[in-house]
Amino acid sequence: MACMNPATASVEIYDPDTGEFSPNGSLGEPRTGAKALLLSDGRVLVSGGYGEYGEDLTTIEIYDPAQGASFLVKPPSNISYLPVGPTVVLLADGSVLIAGGSYALGTTSNVTLIFDPASGGFSNGPLMAEPRQGATATLLRDGRVLMVGGDYVDGNYSYPNKYAELIDPSHPLAQFALSVSEYAGTSTLLSDGRVLVEEWGLWDSAAGCVTPEVSEVFDPRTEAFTPVGPMSTPRIGSAAIRIPDGRVLVFGGVDSKCAAVDTVEAFDLDRGTFQVVATGFPKINNFSATLLDDGGILIAGGHGSDWQMTDASWILKP
């Protein structure tokens, strides 16, 4: 238990005007490592993560900040529970695509579901070309969804998914698009409609931290990936956020020696290059990063270099 991150149901709200956090109700279920997706109506879809005893959570819930309360979503009537580690993405019509994930007995799914937050109902989505869990997803301007990376479980082993695919919610099957990357970490929609895919490499118990050589840009018009970069310091576990001037800031993570990276790099989509724009970034991982209305980025929580959790927060000013 000492090595397990504590799961909590508490919720805090940050006020940019005061620069302070305040309690605001709770979730329906304690969890750690969950994903939060802002819905079109201002509520938040919370999915996955781990429970109080380190168990994988298959539940999703909707948190209402106006009420400070949350309710668990009932799974579709034809299944008893939702998969572990699916990818969730908000679609253009306000519904949510829930893609892939794994079930018991070491099986990874290629099934997608479409969840309607307004009615609480589910419908069947397209079948993915490849089973995957933990992938990254980006909603494109034409309504399709780019799925990249993740892995799949086969028996007692997991393997990287080396393919990207395009999901059209109106079509029954996904389309293939071959990716150079094996471990995609983040995917960020650029201002021109392309997608920056930042590769994370991997951590291996024998090899240590294996950082990526390059990042890639996906062009929906040609359905092809183009290598860009490299970054000044290739890294694993970083965050990427597009700021109002069109650049994408990449920050956090660890380098090839598994040491925390304190630089912030900016991707210039016109040149296809990265440049260090700041130093002194906190030496933390597993933090949250949120773009604020004034263009600042709220960095909150995470683990320090000693892997102890922190309650600190910072504002990154581009």
Question: What key attributes describe this structure?
Answer:
mainly beta, 318 residues, 4-stranded antiparallel sheet, 0% helix, Neuraminidase
Shape: globular
Number of helical stretches of at least 4 residues = 0
Oligomer: single chain
Q: Structural class per helix/strand content?
A: mainly beta
Rg value? 19 Å
Give helix % range. under 10%
Percentage of residues in strands? 35-45%
Any low-confidence stretches, pLDDT <50, length ≥5?
none
Strand line-up of the largest beta sheet: 3-4-5-6
Please identify the top-level CATH class of the domain at 187-318: Mainly Beta
CATH superfamily of the domain at 187-318: Kelch-type beta propeller
Instruction: Calculate the terminal CA-CA distance, rounded to whole Å.
Output: 39 Å
- At the fold tier of CATH, the topology name of the domain at 187-318 is Neuraminidase
> Taking all residues together, what is the mean pLDDT?
89
- Number of beta-strand segments: 31
Q: What kind of sheet is the major sheet?
A: 4 strands, antiparallel
List the helices and strands and how they pair.
Elements: E1 8-15, E2 20-31, E3 35-38, E4 44-47, E5 60-64, E6 69-72, E7 87-90, E8 96-99, E9 102-103, E10 107-108, E11 112-116, E12 121-124, E13 136-139, E14 145-148, E15 151-154, E16 157-160, E17 163-167, E18 175-178, E19 184-189, E20 195-199, E21 202-204, E22 208-210, E23 215-219, E24 224-228, E25 239-242, E26 248-251, E27 264-268, E28 273-278, E29 288-291, E30 297-300, E31 313-316
Antiparallel strand pairs: 1-2, 3-4, 4-5, 5-6, 7-8, 8-11, 9-10, 11-12, 13-14, 14-17, 15-16, 17-18, 19-20, 20-23, 21-22, 23-24, 25-26, 26-27, 27-28, 29-30, 30-31
